[in-house]
Amino acid sequence: ATPTAVMVATGVGANHGVLIKGGDALERAQKVSYVIFDKTGTLTQGKASVTTAKAFSGRDLGDVLTLVASAEASSEHPLAKAIVEYGYHCHFLSQPNKEVGRDAGGNKFSGWLLEATDFTAFPGRGVQCLINGKRILVGNRRLLVDNNVTIPIEAENLMVGLEEGTRTGILVAEDETLIGVLGITDPLKREAAVVVEGLKKMGVHPVMVTGDNWRTARAVAKEVGIEDVRAEVMPAGKADVIRALQEEGCVVAMVGDGINDSPALAAADVGIAIGGGTDIAVEAADYVLMRNNLEDVITAIDLSRKTFARIR
Ligand code: ADP
Ligand code: MG
């Protein structure tokens, strides 16, 4: 393609809110044979909400929710935001005489939380902190089991039911006792299934990669029409998935939004960041989708194919 054709294509992309960082990226996109989608915030809306909350070990549900929210208040994770929001509403609903307000800083999430110290985030697993001298753990099975928490059969059954229904199940422990289970939903983007179908028609193989557990991942993938799933992938592992495909000779595009995704976006032949996503992801990518609409993944590949098809 001539420099003029590349300029025109870049302009057409910009009109769709598809920012293309250079002619090389534009050229590579035509050869893409695999598109790897991150799940949370990429295929899904990234707007999580708590749908289920149950206390265990005879604990009061309100107390458990306050503990979990206090532990998650320091986390930036989308799941954490959903948990704090839910805890906030439950807290004030249970105390009708208390004013549902904001503090001087306009922060509605302070004032009711317990003091948490020694906060640690474990990427891809959960968080830990100390509250009232006890260790609070919030996260997935692996995090709790590695910390010697026994998961009672009723809690495990609840987790399985949630996960089969596309929810992410979150476990809560105080020291080594399981005290709660939360179910969190994050709906698919409206266009997600149509885009997956469209890619298949273009001869492009869609894959979903996620740090979430296998059961939830499979249920979500089924809903969106993706057969090839990689789950329980630690943040560093997403780039390994891409390198393995490249070693087989595939040209790989990665679509992602999170800090977790930036090594994979950089490793991919074509890194595509969701516009509203993390700055680090946007920096690591070759394409930025400003409209946060997955249809523009197809726009990007189409544009490259049309620009370079004639000169192959
Ligand atoms: P994804 O790849 O889908 O964006 P992550 O790698 O961020 O997922 O997280 C993987 C899993 O680790 C989550 O599904 C959840 O079970 C657990 N997790 C991560 N961060 C948190 C947190 N702040 N609170 C609770 N659980 C968490
Ligand atoms: Mg994500």
Automatic annotation (TrEMBL):
<protein>
    <recommendedName>
        <fullName>HMA domain-containing protein</fullName>
    </recommendedName>
</protein>
<comment type="similarity">
    <text>Belongs to the cation transport ATPase (P-type) (TC 3.A.3) family. Type IB subfamily.</text>
</comment>
